[in-house]
Structures are given as C-alpha cells and as structure tokens.
Amino acid sequence: MIIHHWPVRVYWEDTDAGGIVYHSVYLNFAERARTEFVRDLGLSQHELADGGKGFAFAVSRLEVDYKKSARLDDMLEVVTRLIEVNGASARFDQRITRDGEDLVKLNVRLGFVALDGGRPSRLPQHLRQRLNDRLEER
Amino acid sequence: MIIHHWPVRVYWEDTDAGGIVYHSVYLNFAERARTEFVRDLGLSQHELADGGKGFAFAVSRLEVDYKKSARLDDMLEVVTRLIEVNGASARFDQRITRDGEDLVKLNVRLGFVALDGGRPSRLPQHLRQRLNDRLEER
Amino acid sequence: MIIHHWPVRVYWEDTDAGGIVYHSVYLNFAERARTEFVRDLGLSQHELADGGKGFAFAVSRLEVDYKKSARLDDMLEVVTRLIEVNGASARFDQRITRDGEDLVKLNVRLGFVALDGGRPSRLPQHLRQRLNDRLEER
Amino acid sequence: MIIHHWPVRVYWEDTDAGGIVYHSVYLNFAERARTEFVRDLGLSQHELADGGKGFAFAVSRLEVDYKKSARLDDMLEVVTRLIEVNGASARFDQRITRDGEDLVKLNVRLGFVALDGGRPSRLPQHLRQRLNDRLEER
Questions:
Q1: Helix (H) / strand (E) containing C33
Q2: Please, are residues C56 and C114 in contact by the beta-carbon 8 Å criterion?
Q3: Chain B residues with beta carbon closer than 8 angstroms to that of A17
Q4: Residue C27 is nearest to which of D17, D27, D52, comparing CB atoms?
Q5: Tens-digit pLDDT profile for residues D65-96
Q6: What is the DSSP secondary-structure string of A73-123?
Q7: pTM of structure
Q8: Which of D19, D60, D63 sits opposite C63 (nearest CB)?
Q9: Nearest 5°: phi and psi at A39?
Q10: Residue numbers in A near B115 (CB within 8 A)
Q11: What is the ipTM metric for this complex?
C-alpha cells in the first residue's frame, strides 16, 4: 500500500481562542496532503481544473475523529492512504499525527465533478489507470 | 424536538477556485449555528471560556455528507437539532439548506473540555440541566 | 455621504490562540460589508462574475490600522463609506467598531477586473453611473 | 540587511470563486514567513505566549499593494526584511513573489502585547537585543 507523508506546521491563523487548532482546519491540512499525493502521481489539479472548464475532485463524504489537539508551532505530519478507487470516486484514510501519535483520523470519499455545472462525472480513463496502477503497487 | 434555524450568506471568502463553497467552510457555518443555539439557551461561550481558564465545547466526531454545492451570494439556512445529551458529550444533527433543499448534512458529537490543559470534563450540572430541559420540551 | 452599517458577530473560527480576532479576518469582515453595500445598490456580484466569464472587484491597495482587539462573541459593526469613484477604481473608508468605538480602520482601493484573464478593466458605464448617483446624493 | 525567504504553495483553501488567491490570505502567508523569520532568530512564539500568560507580536498597521494574482498550485516565495526595531514595535517589508516577480507588497508594523489583557508592552530587553544584533549584521 502506498503511504504518503506530508509535513504541516501550525501557525496563528490555524488556532482559535481555545489555544488549539480550530476543528475545520484539520480538513484543510488533509486536503493539502491529498493534493500533494495527487501531485506525486504526476497530476496537476490546476491543469485538471482547466480554468473552470475542466474537472475537480470534490469531497462527497467525511468521517473525522478528533482525539487530541494540536497547538501553535506544532510540527504535524499528515499520513495518507488511498484505499479504494471506483469509477467515479476514490476513498482515502488519513491521519494527522504529532511525534507519531494520532491527533485526528479522517475517512474521506471524493467524487469527480465537472467544474462547469458541478455534475458528478466518471474518472477519465487515464486518471483512473494511474490511480489503479498505484494501488496495484502495494 | 427543538429545531433551530440560522441564516448564513455565502461571501467570497467562503468560495474556492471551483466556484463553490470550500468543503471545510460548511463546518464553520455549522459551528456558528451551534453557537447561536447555545446562546439561545442563555449560555455565553465567552463566559464559559473565562479567559482560557474555563470550559469549551470541542468537536470529538463528525460525519458530513456533501450532496449539493453552495455558491457565491447564496442565502443558506443551517437547521440544527440537539439529539442527545450525555454526561460529558452532546450530539447534534445539522443540515445546511438552500430554499429548503439539503446541501450538506452533518452529525456532530461534542465533548466538554477544560481549556487549561484540554482535558475532557463532565458537563457542569447547571449546563446539563439546561440542555436536558430543552430536550424534554420536545 | 452614504454611510453603510453592517453587523458582524465574532465566532470561534475568527479567533486565534491569543484570544483575539486574527488580524486578517477583519479584512473578511470588511469585504462582507462592501458586498452588502454593493448589493444595496442593486448589484449582484454573482451576476457580475457570470460564472467566471464576467467581472469582479479586486482589492488593489489596503491600509489598515489596528487600534483595539475584538474577542469571541463580540457583536461588531462595519461602517463603510464610498469616498471616490474613478474610471477603473473605487475607494472605501471602513471602520470596524464595537459599541461605537473604532477597533480597526481600513482604507481600501478596489479595481475592476475581467475574471477571464484577470486584466484590469474600466467600470462598465451603467455601474459607474449607479455608483456616482450614490455619491451625488451626499 | 537580513533577507529571509520562505516558500508557500497555493492550495484550494487559499483561492476564491474568482479563480485567484483571496486577498486576505496573503496576510496569512506573510505572517507564516514572519513566524519563521522569528523562529530563525531562535525564538518560539509558543514559548513567548506561555499558555496565554505571556506575550505576542500584534500587527498594529499594514499597507498592502496588490499587483498580480496568485492561482491554484502556484509556488510562491515570501521575501521578508526587518527594517526597524523600536522599543515597543518592529517594522517589516515583505514581498510575495512568483518566479522572482512581485505579486503583493506589504509594509507591516508589529507591536508587542501582553496576552493577558492585550496591553501594549515594551519588547523584553533580551528579545530587543537579539533583533538589534540581527539588524547590525547588515
């Protein structure tokens, strides 16, 4: 299985008045890591988006478990696994960790949508092939 | 059952380059609505927080289903139901709607934590009482 | 002179670990108020944007003075004045206030850009007329 | 003069429906770079904050010139210069660049505040010394 690691530093913008990272910000951290995962497959989301006429991944379902809180200046690592690719969706397991300890666990399902109109689409064959090749390498 | 309604307008800050509301922003909309729900119970989170020495609600688990996308200038409504109160947690069902149609559905479990240290705590009795009174009014 | 007033509540998402509103968030509050100001003139930015093929206001220069801090749960008011309209730009003075006291003062210059390509454009005549009519009403 | 360079990648969260980076997000990019600048001086803001009982830098005045827009996937660099240190404030010039071209220029004045109460304070002597040592190295 491919496991992708991505570092994230916590800045003031990420924290809230409780002194911890605001709960929705972990979704942003996770999305940065998925973007880098996809970039590592040789795919640019900017190219895919094609100035609004192309495609994008869209989150269709999320499950998030918050176990511990991150704080200002923490150096975190997002650990990402692609666990399933179907015709029109993909599923990722992600963990946001600090010193190897899980802080937040996410299960993320992505659909593929046409940006012009937002309709769900099937993954273009070349993209699906590349994702599946990656899974077969496990 | 108490059903709480809260309007939210979509501004540029909420959107992304796909032309739609960025997926983590719906969590912020939902949190605004829970805050207003709690305010309606006569509770100020700022007082509870007590300059960092008090308490706060912390999201411990989230399930989010994304069905349709909101866009710039949309007038949304967050519909919030408090469905369970235990000793140290509460659970909410929330829907983010546009013209009565569900765009995003959330199931949110909150724990109660001491801000000084971030340890989970039990809900103070007076707060639990007030929440339970609300539930009994169903 | 037209003076536009817009209320803004401070939520957890707006605060940082210093217990106050994060400095860039006031720019978002100011933008919401300008959007509502423009909406009051009968203009929808969503229509103007025309799915990415139209136009948008873009901030070209900002001066911001931070005098006092806002905190969680504060009820603020953004006070907006349109002070100048030129062929391709407009200038606003904005104050973010709490109980009538200035917290943050902004001087904002906006340009008008074509979304497809991002080039500066001149204000369409009908829009310029509407803005000037407003100014003349002082 | 010390010149500090810090890379920033543009993600979906940073963009808006105009297809470009939302204007207030550049302030966040600039703050990340100042934080890393200060970290390079051997100062941890988390330690300084001391759980809300210590100190923080607070932006007291900003001037921002927006020249060009950044887009999704862009690799940017924040170039930071500390240009002045007084008893209770410091001033930075920052440029956000892409391929060596300026997109956004910022002039930022920071004050030093006590987190418990938010009052302006003088820079502790050891911190002021460290900053001045850096400036003298020009």
A1: helix C25-40
A2: no
A3: 49, 52
A4: D27
A5: 999 999 999 999 999 999 988 878 999 999 99
A6: T-EEEEEEEEEEE-SSEEEEEEEEEETTEEEEEEEEEEEEEETTT--EEPP
A7: 0.94
A8: D63
A9: -60, -40
A10: 18-19
A11: 0.91
